[in-house]
Amino acid sequence: MVNLTQLFGTPHPVALVTGSGAPRIGNCVARALAQRGYRLAIHAHTSLADAQTTGDELGAGSGDAIVLSADLRNEVETRQLVDRVQHHFGRLDVLVNCAAIWEAKAFEEIAAGDVRAHWEVNTLATFVCCQQAGLLMVKQATGGAIVNIGDWAVVRPYRDHAAYFPSKGAIPTLTRNFAVELAARNPQVRVNAVLPGPVTLPHDLSEDQRQAAINSTLVKRAGSPQNVADAVVFLLENDFVTGVNLPVDGGRTIYSPEIEPTSGLNL
Fold this sequence. Notes:
Elements: H1 4-8, E1 14-18, H2 25-35, E2 39-44, H3 48-59, E3 65-69, H4 75-89, E4 94-97, H5 112-137, E5 144-149, H6 165-169, H7 171-185, E6 189-196, H8 207-215, H9 225-237, E7 245-248
Parallel strand pairs: 1-2, 1-4, 2-3, 4-5, 5-6, 6-7
């Protein structure tokens, strides 16, 4: 196991994980970090009850986990979220941007408001969190690490998510840009991204749809949120990796099956 003290200057680094209330990728990431000794700020907006349950489980009265609510569509609340973490723990070593929205809608029905809503949460909130956290990290001698969550399918978008994909398509560029900007101010600050594939299959899929999702990968099986969490941990703790957008998709990015999976299966 990586020596967290050597990496972050403390055996218990502080991590903020946005969108970590609901039992999805963000929650799995938070739990993976807690198991490795990180102190946690668990963020939620609409899933605050789930976040509190997770905080109670992981903190267990130790104060190593706090739960914070913020509407990431609001820039002031977003900046305050990051500042509240730093104020509570006295530092911020890690940011993992998992918060996201997605809505399936026929192309003909999409309005500017739909596109704007996805950009506000998926792109602008990620930008503001990276900026606010990054500016705190550059002031720390040990810097810090940021991981954004993107989407493998931005290279081959599927139908009925035309409002969603532009917002996630910005994540790889945003990640590389912040890696450059923050390292110029402190070389100890690194920024990477994970691009998940089919890791959380919807419960209401038919067996044919489920099999199509599995067939869409080279490994011929569905992934899990834990696969993404493991990749996040790798990117946080390998101090010679920055500016990378890592697909965790079972080979989906490079493989084109004869039968396309149902849209939204990677989420």
